[in-house]
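Supplementary Methods. Inverse-folding protocol.

Structures were first reduced to a discrete structure-token string of length 86. This string, shown here, constituted the complete conditioning input.
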């Protein structure tokens, strides 16, 4: 799914979610974010009109993207992520 990562005091970063689970997400992107950057990952799940706003922190990066560890998720977000096919 296509996602947008909003951050404070800087433009949003666009990317593609390649791996998503309850704990976090890998975002493939031409732009990487530094360790510790707080973000809100925004995207629509495939087959759903539900737009998710997932708070998190960048925990690692490599040349083709970065990993985000989710913060506190609500019941709606947790259920939507859990229902994704594996």
């Amino acid at each position: 799914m296509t996602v947008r990562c909003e951050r404070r005091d800087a433009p949003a970063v666009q990317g593609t979610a390649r791996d998503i689970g309850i704990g976090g997400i890998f975002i493939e992107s031409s732009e990487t974010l530094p360790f510790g950057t707080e973000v809100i990952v925004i995207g629509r799940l495939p087959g759903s009109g539900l737009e998710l706003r997932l708070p998190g922190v960048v925990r690692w990066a490599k040349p083709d993207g970065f990993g985000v560890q989710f913060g506190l998720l609500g019941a709606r977000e947790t259920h939507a992520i859990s229902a994704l096919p594996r």
